Amino acid sequence: MEKYFKYYFDEDLKKLGLKRYIVCTMLKCTMPTLQSRLNNPGTFTVAEIKTLKDNGFESMNKLI
């Protein structure tokens, strides 16, 4: 699942025209933390999922 989730996350980034550092700002996390979350999507918190969903990340629907 992790590999597929990363693919959908990257597709959302392209669609929204965002870079990962912007996502880090949204989530108030570091780049290594974001990378860790993407490698293990089960570690996203509910608040992080909500923040990303509210900003147009459809890939977050795959975690719920």
Largest sheet: none
General form: globular
Overall mean confidence score, pLDDT:
93
What is the helix content? 55-70%
> Which structural category fits the helices and strands?
mainly alpha
Number of domains: 1
Overall number of strands: 0
A few lines on this structure:
This protein is mostly helical and 64 residues long. The protein is built from 4 helices and no strands.
Task: Output the keywords.
mainly alpha; 4 helices; globular
Please describe the topology of this protein.
Blueprint: H1 2-16, H2 20-27, H3 31-39, H4 46-54
Characterization of this structure:
The structure is a single chain. The protein has 64 residues and is mainly α. It has one domain (2-63). It contains four helices and no strands. It is globular and about 25 Å long.
